[in-house]
Amino acid sequence: MLRVPRPDGLLLRALAGKPNDRPPVWLMRQAGRYLPEYREVRAKAGSFLDLCRNPALAAEVTLQPLRRFELDAAIVFSDILIVPYALGQKVEFVEGEGPKLDPVSDGKAMARLNASRADEAFAPVYETVARVVAELPEAVPLIGFCGAPWTVATYMVEGSGSKDQAASRLMAYREPEIFQALIDLLVAVSADYLLGQIKAGASVLQIFDSWAGSLPEDQFERWCIAPTKQIVARVKKEAPEIPVIGFPRGADLLAERYARETGIDAIGCGTSMPVGWMQRLQMHIPVQGNLDPLLLLAGGPALDTRTREIIAILGSGPFVFNLGHGIHPDTPIDHVARLVTQVKSGAP
Ligand code: CP3
C-alpha cells in the first residue's frame, strides 16, 4: 500500500527550494461545495462530520477535484475541528452557520477534554489517507494537515467562528495558565495526528493558522510561533524528510519571524500579504499563495492578469501557486479550470 511520491514532482521540488519550469498548483478547499459531485456525496453522507469519518466517501471527495483539474497535489478531506472532536468536545457543523462547539470557557471545561480516545477518532482519517494514496498517480503527493493550536483553540473557546477571536484573546490575557494548558494539549495531539497521517501515506503537511493575524507580536510569539515550533520539531524528529508548510494567515509583517523560528519548510501567505513581500521571504524560504479567492470567483480578464503577475513576480523562485484562503463555494468551475490551465501553461 505504501507509495513514495517521486521526489522530482513539482510540489516536492518547490518545497525543497529547487527550481521548476512552472509553479506547482493546488488550491485550499479544492474539494468542496463549488463541485456538484461533492454536494452529491455530501448529501448522501449525512452530516459533514459523518463525511469526514467515512473513509470511502472522504477518499472519493479528496480525489474529485483531481479528476477535473490537473492539480499537482491532493489534500486529504477532513477538517481542523476533528481535533477538538477527538478530545471529546461536542462539535457540529450547522448548515449555513458553520461550526458550533460546546465552548471551553473555563478550567472545568478544560479538565473534561481527554486525549485518551483521540486515536480512535483519527483512525478514519488515516484510512482515508491510505485509500487516497493508493489511487493517486506516483507524481502527485497527498497533503495531510491540521489546524495550528491557536486557530483550533479559538474555535474551542469561542464555540464557533468569530470575527475577532475576542473570547480566546481575553482568556489568553486573563488566564494564561489555563490557555497554555489548552495549547499544550493541542500541540501534543496535533503532532500525533500529523505523524499518523504521515504513517498512513501523506507526504507533505500543512498547518493552518487561519487566525494568526489577530494577535499582537508578543501574543503571536507565544500562541502561534512557539506551539507551531514544537509541533514541527516533533514531526521532524520522526519524519525529517516530510516538508511542512506553515500558513499563518494574516501574520504579514510577522511572517518572516514565523518562517525563521518555527522550522517550517515553506510559508503559505494570505491575500493581505503583498506579493513583493512574498518575494522577499522567498530569498529565505519557499512561498505559497496568495491569489484572492474572490478574484477566482469573479473571473474574467482581471483574474488572468493577476495570475500572470503573481507568476511573473514569484515564479522564478521556489513557489507554489495557491489562493490566499479557501475556494469560495460560489466559485464557477470553469474559472478554476481556466486558472489551473493558465498556471500550467504559463499563458494566456
Ligand atoms: O482543502 C481541502 O479541500 C481539504 C479539506 C478542508 C476542509 N476544511 C473541508 C471543509 C480543510 C483543509 C479545512 C480547513 C479548515 N476548516 C480551516 C482552515 C482553513 C480556513 O479556511 O481558514 C478552518 C478554519 C476550518 C473550520 C471550518 N470548517 C469552518 C469555519 C467551516 C464552515 C465554513 C464553511 O465553509 O462552511 C468548516 C466546514 C468545512 N470544512 C466545509 C468543507 C468542505 C464545508 C462544509 C460542508 O460541506 O457542509
Can you offer a commentary on this structure?
By secondary structure, the chain is α/β, with parallel strands linked by helices. The longest helix is centred in the middle third of the chain and has 25 residues. The strands form two sheets. The chain has a seven-stranded parallel β-sheet. The protein has a two-stranded antiparallel ribbon with strand order 2-3. It is globular, with a radius of gyration of 19 Å. The mean pLDDT is 96. The protein has a single domain, classed as TIM Barrel. Helix content is 51%, strand content 11%. The chain starts with 9 loop residues before the first helix and ends with a helix. Coproporphyrinogen III binds next to strand 3 and strand 4.
Give the CATH level 1 class: Alpha Beta
Percent helix among the residues? 40-55%
How do the strands of the widest beta sheet line up side by side? Answer: 1-4-5-6-7-8-9
Q: How many strands in all?
A: 9
The largest sheet is: 7 strands, parallel
Strand content: 5-15%
> Can you count the helices?
16
CATH topology: TIM Barrel
Count of separate structural domains: 1
Order of H and E elements: HHHHEHEEHHEHHHEHEHEHEHHEH
The end-to-end span amounts to 40 Å
